[in-house]
Amino acid sequence: MPLRLAVGKKHVFTDWSFVEPGYGVSWSGAPQPSMMPNGVKIVTFRPTLQPEPVVVSEKPWEDHFINGYATFFEDEGRMRLYYEAFAEYGSGDFSARLCYAESEDGIHWVRPELDILPFGDEHGAHVHKDPTAPPDERYRMVHSGNDEKGAFVAGAVSPDGIHWTPIEEPLLRWASDTQTVVFRDEACGHYKGYFRGWPQGNLWHGRRTVDHAVSDDFRSWPDPSFCMVTDANDPPGTDIYTNGVTPWPGAQDAYLAFPCFYPRTADTMETHLWVSRDGAVWHRPSREPLLGSGTPETNHFAGVVAGQGIIQTAPGEWSMLVQPKVLTHNETHYEGGWWNKGGLWRATIREDGFMAVEADGRGELWTLPFTLEGNRLELNAWTHFGGEIRVGLIVEGEDTPAGFGVEDCDGVSGNALWTSLTWRGNRDLSALRGKTVRLHWEITRGRLYAFRMAQC
């Protein structure tokens, strides 16, 4: 059965899963290569850490410290930000406070006067909007908790994202003492949860991991299991401290994670990139940090911790909110270690720009067969001077209508953000709608970040 690429949903290149592997020597017919990708590779790119903060300590309840545990998302034309802060130093209250800010552009944030007292210690909180939930529970929160029985994951619900009602019973008895992430996955219709693991058995003994669970009910969760762990190529004293999981915006089957690695020897924090097709099986496309530690004179000498979410801050620009760290993980616990009040900065990257298929010279690949929906093909791509990207359509089991081959494609050069492909000036693919097709991509000195089918 052919695959399906839904109209408006992007295919991004976290791996080769949608690419035909081909054969060096075909099993039948002429003994020659068959649809074998060549001259292409998948590459990763790092975001740029912007020099100025977007959120700094201004209020008494955040005077002690603003943590990197933050959630940010677009909600009906405005950006919402939920972040963790601690009260004035010396107050004797070291409870984490869930704070709120909003923005029209994701860069300039305001703190509305809410006149609401917090309901407790909301350490490691994460907020998501669930459009399928009842109106009085449209916004849902998880955070860490403790009682006489030990640690647990707590929950709360809200009709507006401002006024919260705690859920009386723990959602899960689990010591997730970092930013837990829970969201409803529209692709599969259930909730995905990502929790801290700290196993004490033979497997990764004492090393922090990222654990994963799935539930049909926000209020009830099974015990999580490993989904991100360190391996033999990591130094032995390395933990995965946070997870930062988010669905890849606009993609059909892709998830991003920005876990913070904690190398105990250096005592620093460094954000890495992990990707997944289903949210359960993850891989690390690069072993280099996405946002690493800097030199001693920088504001991120001790590393960078990422919050959860991606927001669009300009056409073609995505932003993450992160916390650069001047002081190392354990340095903050010594006298005077909290002088750095923290805050949030932006790390920016091209839309879909974390990964791409790239050809240094000339390369080509074929997709797997899929049912063509929509009537035009759009791409997000970039080429060097003299570079070009072309694509041809191959109809499975029949002759392709004339005019849609690679040789007919007008090609795209330079910076292309959701540019429609044309064949001899024609972009209308209605004649092929409903047919099983492959895309034959030719890339010369360029990068293909993503493509999608669209409807005029």
State the secondary-structure class.
mainly beta
Spatial separation of the terminal alpha carbons? 27 Å
Q: How would you sum up the major sheet? A: 8 strands, mixed
- Low-pLDDT parts are none
Global shape: globular
Tell me the number of strands: 32
Overall radius of gyration: 24 Å
List the helices and strands and how they pair.
Layout: E1 3-4, E2 10-12, E3 41-44, E4 48-55, E5 65-75, E6 78-86, E7 96-103, E8 109-110, E9 126-129, E10 139-147, E11 150-158, E12 165-166, E13 181-185, E14 190-197, E15 209-215, E16 225-228, E17 238-240, E18 246-247, E19 255-257, E20 260-263, E21 270-271, E22 274-276, E23 282-283, E24 304-306, E25 311-314, E26 317-324, E27 344-350, E28 355-366, E29 370-371, E30 376-395, E31 415-420, E32 436-454
Parallel strand pairs: 1-29
Antiparallel strand pairs: 2-32, 3-28, 4-27, 5-6, 6-7, 7-8, 9-10, 10-11, 11-12, 13-14, 14-15, 15-16, 17-20, 18-19, 19-22, 20-21, 22-23, 24-26, 25-26, 26-27, 28-32, 29-32, 30-31, 30-32
Can you give me a brief rundown of this structure?
The chain has 456 residues and is mainly beta. It has strands at 3-4, 10-12, 41-44, 48-55, 65-75, 78-86, 96-103, 109-110, 126-129, 139-147, 150-158, 165-166, 181-185, 190-197, 209-215, 225-228, 238-240, 246-247, 255-257, 260-263, 270-271, 274-276, 282-283, 304-306, 311-314, 317-324, 344-350, 355-366, 370-371, 376-395, 415-420, 436-454. 42% of the residues are buried.
